[in-house]
Amino acid sequence: MADSPEKRGLIGRIWAWIWTPAAAFSAGFLVLAGFLAGILFWGGFHWTLEMTNTEEFCVSCHTMETNLGEYRETIHYNNHSGVRAICSDCHVPKEWSFKIEAKIMAVKDVYHELVGTISTPEKYEDHRLKMASAVWKKMKASDSRECRNCHNFEYMDFTIQETRAANEHQRAIDENMTCIDCHQGIAHSLPPGYLEEYQKVVASLVPVTGTEIAQSTGAAEIRSFLNSASD
Q: How far is the C-alpha of 128 from the C-alpha of 95, rounded, in Å?
């Protein structure tokens, strides 16, 4: 025997009301109402998602102040062309499925903010190599997907690039290299031992040919290129 409405409680009555056939509304009205509700939900969800892509949101945590200061000293913040790349341009994919995955994974950043993993300059420096390694691994695995939102070998005119840059970019094409192979410190300071750590990242992603790839992105070559790129 079914419980009386009085015994169901508030949640039970609401649940029963949701699944009770509607006699007062037509099927067309319910479909239209559901459609409009879906639009409102999707609009609100998309607005919230885009809000989390703003630079203001990205640096709202105090532990990001170090990142922000370093980024503002780079060419991605101020340059001759006036084109600025913000945090989400480099760290959030444009494609929907990859973007949602990145947002889910970003929950760990909230956790570490709450527990104070990098709450002091000393803690930040202690974790810098580990944090950088995680970003390098993601970018290497995706063939520097976010870099290519703005930079693409197919769109480059090597004839107007500096000779060294043009030669290195051509070598990258010939040897199937990717942006992060040479530009690990393009927006943030590099930690001690970064070259060795990056080679470990490369080797872990391509275990069969890891040695060959690590050699093609050798420490001396990368250091030389980074020094010339920062001049």
A: 28
pTM: 0.72
**Helix 194-205 × helix 219-230 angle, to 10°:** 120
pLDDT in tens, 92-114: 999 988 999 999 988 888 899 89
User: How high is the pLDDT of residue 73?
Assistant: 92
Give the pLDDT score at 132: 94
Residues 84 and 60: their CA atoms lie apart, in Å, by: 19
